Amino acid sequence: MAIKKGAEIAPAKGKLGVLLVGLGAVSTTFIAGVEAIKRGIAEPIGSLTQMGAIRLGKRTENRVPLIKEFIPLAGLNDLVFGAWDIFTDSAYEAAMHAGVLEKELLKQIKTPMQKIKPMRAVFDQHYVKRLNGTNVKEGANKMEMAEQLIEDIAEFKRKNKCSRLVMIWAASTEIFLKTHAVHKTLKSFEQAMVDNHKAIAPSMIYAYAALKSGVPFANGAPNLSVDLPALMQLADENRVPVCGKDFKTGQTLMKTIIAPGLKSRMLGLHGWYSTNILGNRDGEVLDDPESFKTKEESKLSVLEYILQPEVYPALYKDFSHVVRINYYPPRGDNKEGWDSIDIFGWLGYPMQIKIDFLCRDSILAAPLVLDLALFLDLAQRTGMKGIQEWLSFYFKSPQSAPELYPEHDIFIQLMKLKNTLRHLRGEDLITHLGLEYYD
Predict the structure, then answer these.
(1) Which portions of the chain are predicted below pLDDT 70?
(2) 313 neighbors 295 (Cβ within 8 angstroms)
(3) Handedness of CA 297, 298, 299, 302 (dihedral sign)
């Protein structure tokens, strides 16, 4: 949606409710982090909204404010958290179980964490085969489930006296689904929910409930959910911003940094072999071949779009790209990603790059959740609706308009994000042309 330069942005008055689907490692690490930052016992490292700066005007002007000072974002003290989960553990108990954060840190924020109790979740083991929980909703059909979620949303907003809400999917990866005829129109989608059609997964029900409630929605998993014609129609009709999909954290983050560098120097690629080990709930879910297929599709698309083999066939035609994920319980949330990259340079001479990224998945994902919550709220207050392509920076498989290919280059994504912010505040876009030397 086109927004005019210097658009009017409604002030961020009142509380912003952040509704999380899933109260696992990512969500609890996010909530704990915000509570720790509010108390001055930690820094918001990894968050663009909290630590990032933005250059304005010419370099000689030395105008480089922090993004949070340049754009009217909701403050951390105004955030209120809610969640759905298939387990009854409070945010504190779930965080202790996840084992991402040190117990001493969690004890300092125990009181606010204990107050966050998950609502009953919409869940069907057909879509996530390796999990099973008791804190789930019951209903005659999927439409009734959606109506229960809509009631949850309204009740949360009323009870917590929120002026605005956002919803973020931070739950497990569902089985691989392709678009179906029932996804084409809102009418057919709603009828399919009434009919309990298998093409309607739980993540789609959450997205529908959010959009029906006028709540912005971000999809942090590779599921087919909000990226459907029917839900895009609903987002447009209700003037709601959406974005996704699949948080860009470990191995794919490295690919979107390294691949643009290879391409910028016109270095060729024979093959890129990637394997991961992780032992958290995400790893357990991805141990199921159908859920892994969903994640694999998200991970494999990155290099094709960045390297453009159809434009540079001599460098990138028919390169081999293999992705493996292995569940290894002892590793917990500390994911390890190995990459073996076979490249070639001048006169076709071969070279290799080896990467061993020992990362903490939820530590990388938590600041993304914060930024997305704040930026989606900004988009809503600015009157932006539909796909927010300027937020592609945060996703492995970013949504884009049907007629456009998604942009995966992280440096282009960051430029687009910052230029969007400049545009909203009436500032000139940064193009790096430097034509003043040629006057």
Answers:
(1) 1-2, 283-284, 286-287, 290-292, 294-296, 298-299, 434-439
(2) no
(3) positive
Please say whether the beta carbons of 306 and 312 come within 8 A: no
Alpha-carbon separation of residue 263 from 103, 339, 357, 369 (angstroms): 44, 17, 21, 30
Tell me how crowded residue 426 is: count the other CB atoms within 10 A of its CB.
10
Cα-based angle 276, 277, 278 (whole degrees, multiple of 5): 120
- What is the Cα–Cα distance from 388 to 52, expressed in whole angstroms? 20
> Do 292 and 286 meet the contact criterion of CB atoms below 8 Å apart?
yes
Partners of 409 in beta bridges: none
Tell me how far the alpha carbon of residue 175 is from its chain's centroid.
18
d(CA 155, CA 270): 55
pLDDT tens across 261-317, in order?
999 999 999 999 999 888 877 766 766 776 667 666 766 789 999 999 999 999 999
**What element of type H or E holds 315?**
helix 313-316
**Per-residue pLDDT, 438:** 41
How long is the chain? 439
| Spatial contact of 319 and 344, defined as CB atoms under 8 Å apart | no
3-state secondary structure of 8: coil
Q: What is the tens place of the pLDDT at every residue in 392-425?
A: 999 999 999 888 889 999 999 999 999 999 999 9
Radius of gyration, CA atoms only, the chain: 22
Fold exhibited by the domain 15-247+362-424: Rossmann fold (3.40.50)
Query: What are the structural domain ranges in the chain?
Result: 15-247+362-424, 251-358
First CA to last CA distance, the chain: 36
Return the CATH superfamily for domain 251-358: Dihydrodipicolinate Reductase; domain 2 (3.30.360.10)
